[in-house]
Design brief:
The protein is built from 14 helices and 21 strands. Helix 1 runs parallel beside helix 3 and helix 5 runs parallel beside helix 7. The radius of gyration is 24 Å and the shape is globular. The chain folds into 2 domains: about 120 residues, Immunoglobulin-like (Sandwich), CATH 2.60.40; about 350 residues, Glycosidases (TIM Barrel, Alpha-Beta Barrel). Strands 4-5-6-10-11-12-13-14 form an 8-stranded parallel barrel, surrounded by 4 helices. The chain has a 4-stranded antiparallel sheet with strand order 18-17-20-21. It starts with 13 loop residues before the first strand and ends with a strand. By secondary structure, it is an alpha/beta fold. Keywords: Membrane, Signal, Transmembrane, Transmembrane helix. InterPro entries: Divisome_Glycosyl_Hydrolase, GH, GHL10. It comes from Branchiostoma lanceolatum.
Length: about 500
């Protein structure tokens, strides 16, 4: 975690850097640096409370948003605003928004058709027209929330869906690589045309939209159907004919690996600040770690997230640890510890948690609260947050989950952790900061660098507590009488030097 710069608005010089103290404030980790001045009076300058607090908003089958494919434009917007306001209430800081459920688009695309789940008409734009992704980004950033665009790379259609595919859908563009397998139409990951199209779709979004991240979930090759192999024999034979010598399982894994590696490079070449993350199935292979028994994504989905971490092809990994804490065969803490041990390049680990099991399987809310605490207890090993699947329990406060999280693990705001391998350049500090009557004001950012403003309050113990994370477009905030510290924060989470004001 980077050390904050010295406070510019203080006139006294510092003789020495005193003590670095790790504190826990309402469960959120706060690093505090005590600076000793010439007079010997300690001045406490904080490093931020850092934790990735994400939630998946699933659009496929209208799981989370929109609640129906028959809503009007204004109803869709209102639902999304309600979701974001709930995220602010819960001190969540990252929306993982499903923009491509099945070769379709929740945004204005020249490459793929509008999603059926948006308007009930595959290939038809919302009417009156608006761009849901652009709207979601604008409203998220207004609230100081990151938006990570969530893509499914190969799924083409759920067979339970009744719509017909638009002419420009990838299954119609590449019918020779479209397979009817299980409950889905699926694209062949071994086909270069499919890989190129998926890559182009994602880079197009990175180029045209102000997303903070790109994410895949656990769907690579499809979950297998017992007794039925995925029908990519012709593609594999073409690979062998061209001189390829890998076995089919290794070839399949290589197809996925090449797309992951290519996207990591391509995304950062387009926009260096856009984060690339993947949320794989929570077990790499049965028996890893010892005692774990379960489905092997390495052998069945041909996904090798252990390799992606080792090679640094992701900025974060969010393994889906969708089991309870205690069962030994799929132990939440044992699996988390194993993933943390596979991270030689020190990328971030954000655990994926199955929040919806409080209503699908009767899990107590305390199970999810305790899982967050377990993840947080390993922050020194780069366990730096959680992503909840999905938004519906938070949206509807099922089983009082909102109240439980607000009163316990998410009682105070936090900012996403800094990815130091991407950028460490701090922005300029806020300008024009003034203390009014129960209000602090400052100038609008003119650089285009600021993503949020971080406001800290000095408590009775002379410790700075993060009390607000405000959107880039904010220039004032109502406060109680106290001493405050304001910092500008860029889109990578780097903080400026301090501006301190007292509201009396």
């Amino acid at each position: 975690m980077p050390v904050p710069k010295f406070t510019k608005c203080m006139s006294r010089r510092y003789l020495a850097l005193g003590i670095i103290v790790a504190l826990t404030v309402s469960g959120a980790i706060v690093m505090t640096i005590i600076l000793v001045t010439e007079t010997g009076t300690p001045t406490i300058t904080p490093s931020p409370s850092r934790e990735f607090r994400g939630v998946w908003v699933a659009t496929v089958s209208n799981i989370d948003w929109p609640s129906s494919r028959h809503l009007s434009t204004e109803q869709q917007k209102a639902e999304l605003v309600t979701i974001l306001d709930r995220m602010v209430e819960l001190n969540l800081n990252a929306l993982v928004f499903q923009v491509r459920p099945a070769g379709d688009a929740f945004y204005d695309s020249q490459l793929e058709p509008w999603s059926y789940y948006l308007s009930g008409r595959h290939g038809s734009a919302p009417s009156p027209y608006y761009d849901p992704l652009a709207f979601a980004i604008e409203e998220s950033h207004r609230r100081g929330i990151e938006l990570h665009a969530w893509f499914n790379p190969y799924r083409a259609k759920s067979k339970s869906a009744s719509y017909s595919l638009a002419s420009n859908h990838m299954a119609n563009r590449f019918p020779q690589y479209t397979y009817d397998y299980g409950n889905y139409l699926w694209m062949d990951p071994g086909a270069e045309d499919v890989a190129d199209h998926t890559y182009d779709v994602i880079i197009d979004v990175v180029r045209r939209y102000d997303v903070d991240g790109v994410q895949f979930d656990d769907y690579f090759y499809p979950y297998p159907i017992s007794g039925t192999d995925f029908p990519d024999t012709a593609t594999y034979r073409a690979y062998q004919t061209s001189g390829g010598t890998m076995s089919k399982p290794d070839w399949r894994r290589d197809n996925v690996n090449r797309l992951v590696r290519r996207l990591y490079s391509g995304i950062h070449a387009e926009k260096a600040h856009v984060k690339f993350g993947i949320s794989p199935f929570g077990i790499w292979r049965s028996g890893y770690p010892a005692g774990i028994v379960g489905f092997s994504q390495y052998d069945s989905l041909y996904a090798d997230p252990k390799l992606w971490l080792e090679q640094g092809w992701v900025d974060y990994l969010a393994p889906q640890l969708y089991w309870m804490i205690d069962p030994p065969q799929q132990s939440y803490p044992a699996l988390l510890d194993w993933w943390l041990d596979q991270n030689p390049l020190q990328r971030h680990i954000y655990t994926g948690n199955y929040l919806s099991r409080i209503f699908t399987d009767g899990w107590p809310v305390s199970e999810l609260v305790n899982q967050v605490k377990i993840s947080r207890d390993r922050a020194d090993r780069l366990s730096l947050g959680n992503i909840m699947f999905s938004m519906k329990p938070f949206r509807d406060n099922i089983s009082g989950v909102v109240d439980s999280f607000k009163s316990d693990v998410y009682s105070q705001p936090a900012m996403p952790p800094v990815m130091t391998w991407l950028d460490t350049q701090a922005p300029d500090p806020p300008t024009g900061v003034k203390a009014g009557e129960r209000e602090i004001t400052w100038n609008m950012d003119q650089t285009g660098v600021v993503q949020t403003w971080a406001l800290y309050r000095q408590n009775q113990d002379n410790i700075w507590e993060l009390v607000h994370v405000l959107g880039y477009n904010t220039t004032s905030v109502k406060v109680d009488a106290a001493t405050y510290l304001l910092r500008a924060v860029d889109r990578m989470g780097n903080e400026s030097s301090d501006v301190i004001v007292t509201v009396s």
